[in-house]
Amino acid sequence: MDDQLKTAQLAQPDALPDGLLDAKPSEIHDLLTRPTLVHLPGKQAAPLFISVMLHGNEPVGLLALQALLKKYQGQTLPRALSIFFGNTEAAVRCLRRLEHQPDFNRIWPGTDLPPSPETFMAEQIVNTMAYRKVFASIDIHSNTGLNPHYACINKLDDRFLQLASLFGRLVVYFIRPKGVQSAAFAKICPAVTLECGRPGQQNGVQHALDFIDTCLHLTEFSKHPVRHQDIDLYHTVAQVKIADAISFSFEQTHADLLLDKDLERMNFNEIPAGTFWGKVNNTQTLPLLALDETGQDVSTDFFSIQHDELLINRNTMPSMLTLDERVIRQDCLCYLMERVQQ
Predict the structure, then answer these.
(1) Element (H, E) at 194
(2) Is residue 342 part of a domain?
(3) Are both 164 and 93 inside the same structural domain?
């Protein structure tokens, strides 16, 4: 890779900087001024890898780690711990990402993005953790929309399901979007993404903290399959975006697409065909783009316009619907899922 693409040098200290355990999310960038992967020793040598703040407006992982490391201050951790602190620059402004940045959860090996300092950094991290014989990987996130806590996996493997079930009953399997952290780590160890509710909710911090602590004490993953009655497993079958040329709003009636203000209440609810999603103005062209897990356009399979109303065509279950218009434009409107019959 061209040397210009290697400018995002990765720091790999063996200790946390002073003050990090008490720093606010917006202050972490003052302590970690470049991409940082911290390696902490533990009684079991194979490290647990944790990534936090890949999105700067999602501090739940940082807060959970701060609480965990305070708990173990003055003690040896049960297992070695490697922590990647992600987009601390965006965290200064409490934004998912800055306008000039790629999404830090789309830069990992397997991404569709062109080579960049960030994709090189992500590749470095995966290679480093493979060399260290990583035990498992946890990527911790919040949702901007109204969603329950759930775990995501990228491989239907008993070890992955065992890991995810430690977080709760709700498990989502997906292979799109490309370039996510958990998919890259799934090639070298059991990997999971945690979705811990909205930012600022203490129960999300506590849930992530308890999960990490449990994982630190694991010695191996059970070889027994997870019983189908112990989890609710869903498969993401489409990612839904708003077409770039379409203006949208939850408030402005003149927008090309006026979305239903109650849309996020559909998250993790099975909704029937014919459900109203919004009002379409000035066009009969679908304002949404739905891509299946192979990247094929399946928009008309899921959506139609009838009498200027945007409707869902088939029974489905949405996730990650949000009312945050910036996040919708930077990422997507939602994902559509189907229940996996085990």
Answers:
(1) strand 191-195
(2) no
(3) yes
